[in-house]
Write a structure and sequence with these properties.
Layout lengths: L5 H4 L12 H13 L5 E5 L6 H13 L14 H8 L5 E5 L6 H10 L10 E6 L6 H12 L5 E7 L7 H4 L3 E4 L5 H15 L5 H11 L3 H14 L7 H8 L5 H12 L2 H13 L4 H20 L4 H4 L3 H11 L4 H17 L6 H12 L8 H16 L31 H15 L4 H7 L2 E4 L5 E6 L2 H8 L2 H12 L4 E6 H12 L2 H4 L6 H10 L8
Parallel strand pairs: 1-4, 1-5, 2-3, 3-4, 7-8
Antiparallel strand pairs: 6-7
Helix pairs in contact: 3-4, 5-6, 8-9, 9-10, 9-11, 10-11, 12-13, 12-14, 13-18, 14-16, 14-17, 17-18, 17-19
GO cellular component, one term: DNA polymerase III complex
Enzyme class: transferase
Protein name: DNA-directed DNA polymerase
């Protein structure tokens, strides 16, 4: 006999088996009791939260010959048995991803004219309805607005934003919530007990956290673990082996290494992680979760419900958060989030991770205000902890201080359209739809010379060559966003900096941070008594 996957075996057949959606189950039952069943429903929610299962249970309940007093289908009458076996012609489940044309909807429009052969209603369950084409949605409109009395439509989707407003307004919308980790872990333990299998509580809680609110995902992960360790008790270490994850201690150690700027220790942790056969992307994902938990711990006093951690991990998190500032944590989260996006297009993820770690452990890599604010917060923390800075180089008394070069002439004022472009560039590049181009532009800034061109200043020459190929597309995107047409050129950052220094003097001298209002605002937050007027 072929094996049945756990998520199929434990698919609920009654409303009582639907996990974490009591608000929807209660509403549907009340509608059946009072005879106020709607002609069209829209079930929205992330994957694995019970949308299709609830739709099938509802279809049986409204057609059941002998429903229970609380609105459950009996699952024993001929109608229920036919629907469960997929033999019923009155309950049709349609996958909109593969049946998304207007012809498929026209077939439905012809079929709905005929009454059900058995039961009370004909029910059409259209899964992933957002995948229908525009013409298919238009063909469905009239039928949804004035369907025959014997027809009910149940539309299910993971992306309701893509469903036209004209469809949404004709349906009763039910939003399926993400299932909590506690509910998932409890449900998994119940299923394992029914199967006569064993797993530790921390293993099931970890599976629940990996599932991210999806009961189906958690059952698939658990199924994989049971197959790999056939007949054995499932433990936390075994789950981590199967999914390529690492023990949470590594994230505490990595955070400590970043805090102390100990590049050697951080690189050693990466090496150990890879030697253990762990997945780099999974490591970065879980590190981001750990940093987020630290940020919540340091900023939100009553965070037990938000974090959903064991008492031991929560206490350890609290201890580590005391030595970190929100500015540092926010900066690290931003850097690792960008790294996560870059990894989608990388052939060697390890190199990207190691370079990012070295960057965060250095003092030279980032000079933007966010990085400087995070670095300043780290220095404040060290001062508070009583850490002293050792001077490794002494300047002799006879050494002549190097005079600061005087700034040359100031750059001319920019026209309003170019000034606005420079200010809005970080937002404009993030709105570009092409993910590959968006990734490349994250390392590109806007620059100007004394001509009519707008220069895309790239961090290195190879990037400039790549961006050059996208100039027509970038020009078109900027024209859509600003209503202006710009003459774009690419330029390597080193060449651009050299040109500016030759014409206007060194950047740090020509436009000192001391005169920058944004810099003054950040610094005044740390030194309120100091004179920080720009």
């Amino acid at each position: 006999m072929s094996y049945t996957a756990l998520y199929r075996k434990f698919r609920p057949n009654v409303f009582a088996g639907v996990v974490g959606q009591d608000h929807i189950v209660k509403t549907l039952k009340n509608q059946m009791k009072t005879g106020r069943v709607s002609h069209a429903y829209l079930f929205c929610g992330t994957r694995g939260t019970g949308k299709t299962s609830t739709a099938k249970i509802f279809a049986r309940a409204i057609n059941c010959l002998h429903p229970t007093e609380d609105g459950e289908p009996c699952n024993e009458c001929k109608v229920c048995q036919d629907i469960l076996a997929g033999r019923s012609v009155n309950v049709m489940e349609i996958d909109a991803a593969s049946n998304n044309s207007v012809d498929n909807i026209r077939e439905i429009r012809e079929e709905v004219k005929y009454p059900p052969t058995e039961g009370t209603f004909k029910v059409y369950i259209i899964d992933e309805v957002h995948m229908l084409s525009n013409s298919a949605f238009n063909a469905l409109l009239k039928t949804l607005e004035e369907p025959p009395a014997h027809v009910i439509f149940i539309l299910a989707t993971t992306d309701p934003q893509k469903v036209p407003a004209t469809i949404l307004s004709r349906c009763q919308r039910f939003d399926f919530r993400r299932i909590t980790a506690d509910d998932i872990a409890h449900t998994l333990m119940k299923y394992l007990n029914e199967e006569g299998l064993a797993a530790t509580e921390d293993a099931l809680r970890y599976v629940a956290q990996l599932a991210d609110g999806s009961l189906r995902d958690s059952l698939s992960i658990l199924d994989q673990c049971l197959a790999f360790y056939s007949g054995e008790e499932v433990t936390l270490e075994k789950v981590q082996d199967v999914v390529g994850a690492v023990d949470k201690t590594v994230f505490f150690d990595m955070t400590e290494a970043l805090k102390q700027k100990d590049a050697a220790k951080a690189m050693e942790l990466v090496e150990e992680m890879l030697l253990a056969g762990r997945d780099v992307k999974q490591f970065v994902t879980e590190l981001l979760v750990h940093l987020r938990n630290l940020l919540v711990t340091s900023t939100v006093p009553d965070n037990a419900r938000i974090l959903d951690l064991s008492a031991e991990n929560a206490a350890r998190l609290q201890q580590q958060a005391k030595g970190l500032s929100p500015a540092e944590l926010t900066y690290w989260i931003g850097r690792f989030s960008g790294l996560q996006n870059d990894m989608k297009y990388a052939s060697n993820e390890r190199i990207l991770l190691e370079v990012e770690i070295l960057r965060l452990c250095s003092t030279w890599a980032d000079t933007d205000l966010t990085a400087l604010a995070a670095r300043l917060a780290g220095l404040e923390r060290k001062v508070a902890e009583g850490v002293t800075v050792t001077v490794t180089e002494q300047v002799s008394d006879g050494a002549v201080k190097k005079e600061k070069p005087k700034a040359k002439r100031k750059p001319p004022a920019l026209p309003e359209d170019k000034e606005n472009l420079q200010k809005e560039w970080p937002l404009l590049r993030n709105e570009i739809g092409d993910p590959i181009l968006k990734s490349k532009l994250s390392r590109v800034e806007i620059g100007f010379k004394e001509d009519d061109n707008v220069y895309l200043v790239c961090e290195y020459g190879a990037l400039a060559d790549m961006v050059q190929k996208y100039l027509p597309q970038i020009t078109e995107e900027l024209e859509k966003a600003t209503g202006k047409t710009f003459q774009l050129q690419t330029l390597e950052k080193a060449a651009y900096d050299q040109w500016r220094e030759a014409n206007y003097g060194a950047e740090e001298e020509a436009a000192s941070d001391e005169n920058d209002p944004e810099w003054a605002s950040i610094m005044s937050g740390y030194f309120p008594e100091a004179d920080m007027e720009p």
